[in-house]
Amino acid sequence: MKAFFEGIQYLFVNILFAPLDFLRRLELVTWFGANTINWIFMIICACAIVYWIKQLRIFDDAGTENQDTTAHSFLK
C-alpha cells in the first residue's frame, strides 16, 4: 500500500508539477515570462467577454430577448 501512495507522490511531484517548478525558477529571471500562463488566461477571458457582449447586442437589437420579469418561473 505504501508503494501505491509513493507512486502517486512521484507522479505529482516529479511529472505533473514539473512545469510549475520551471515557472518558479523562471520568476527569478523574468517576471513576465513566469506569468505567461496568467497573461494567456486573461487574453482568453477578455476575448470571451467581448464575444458574449457582441452576442447580447445582436439578440437585443433583433428584439428576441425576453426581458419580462415573468420569464423565469422562480420570479413569479
Automatic annotation (TrEMBL):
What InterPro entries does the record point to?
DUF6341
Pfam family of the protein (one): DUF6341
Enumerate the UniProt keywords alphabetically: Membrane, Transmembrane, Transmembrane helix
Q: Where are the transmembrane segments?
A: 28-53
What is the name attached to this protein's record? Uracil phosphoribosyltransferase
The species this protein belongs to is Flavobacterium johnsoniae (strain ATCC 17061 / DSM 2064 / JCM 8514 / BCRC 14874 / CCUG 350202 / NBRC 14942 / NCIMB 11054 / UW101) (Cytophaga johnsonae)
